[in-house]
């Protein structure tokens, strides 16, 4: 039923909800078929958690993984440990071998632009990437805890070698390295800087 009310010469319809419409909607909802839930199966899924949905659980992991990380230490799965006092970064090639990358060379820093957040690496410190074969397709670079980027010269250097760079904080770079290294074995490398060596 529609009732109109007149107020100051204007006609405004007022719509009342008829009871049978409410009743029919309830009946329609009630009539819907509800799938029965297997309680035992649901309980088992909850106990297993997300492990059942790990599509990469059967894939081989990189030989060199990060077993532990803090602001002043990186512990590798192969037993090596890199600490702040060593004044080096952790360089992992293709998930197979780990090296120490010197932060200083003959008294000169291999990191330019720490104060601006746009980092450039001197070409002399990157020669190892020209020598290694096969070259990694992706290099995950972790630049401490702060938001930093690599400068255009360094980016062009890696691009000319056919390498893609993923630049982030060190913690995120570790995650990227292990995820991409599992998806694309042998093609992903990492250059990881301890936060404390960059903040001093």
TrEMBL record:
Recorded hits in InterPro entries, A to Z, give: MTH938-like_sf (IPR036748), NDUFAF3/AAMDC (IPR007523)
Which SUPFAM superfamilies does the UniProt entry name for this protein?
Answer: MTH938-like (SSF64076)
Q: GO CC terms on record?
A: mitochondrial inner membrane
A GO BP term here is: mitochondrial respiratory chain complex I assembly
Membrane-spanning ranges: none
Q: Name one Pfam family in it.
A: DUF498
Query: What's the protein here called?
Result: NADH dehydrogenase [ubiquinone] 1 alpha subcomplex assembly factor 3
């Amino acid at each position: 039923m529609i009732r109109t009310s007149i107020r100051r010469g204007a006609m405004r319809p007022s719509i009342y909800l008829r009871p049978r419409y409410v009743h029919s909607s309830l009946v329609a909802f009630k009539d819907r078929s509800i799938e029965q839930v297997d309680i035992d199966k649901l309980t088992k899924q909850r106990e297993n958690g997300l492990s059942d949905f790990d599509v990469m659980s059967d894939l081989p992991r990189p030989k060199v993984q990060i077993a532990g990380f803090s602001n002043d230490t990186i512990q590798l799965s192969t037993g090596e440990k890199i600490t702040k006092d060593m004044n080096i970064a952790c360089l992992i090639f293709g998930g197979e071998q780990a090296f120490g990358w010197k932060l200083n060379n003959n008294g000169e820093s291999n990191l330019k632009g720490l104060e601006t957040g746009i980092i450039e690496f001197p070409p002399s410190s990157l020669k190892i990437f020209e020598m290694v074969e096969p070259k990694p397709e992706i290099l995950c670079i972790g630049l401490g805890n702060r938001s930093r980027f690599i400068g255009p010269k360094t980016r062009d250097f890696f691009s000319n070698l056919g390498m893609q760079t993923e630049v982030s904080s060190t913690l995120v770079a570790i995650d990227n390295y292990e995820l991409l290294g599992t998806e694309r074995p042998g093609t992903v490398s990492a250059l990881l800087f301890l936060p404390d060596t960059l903040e001093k």
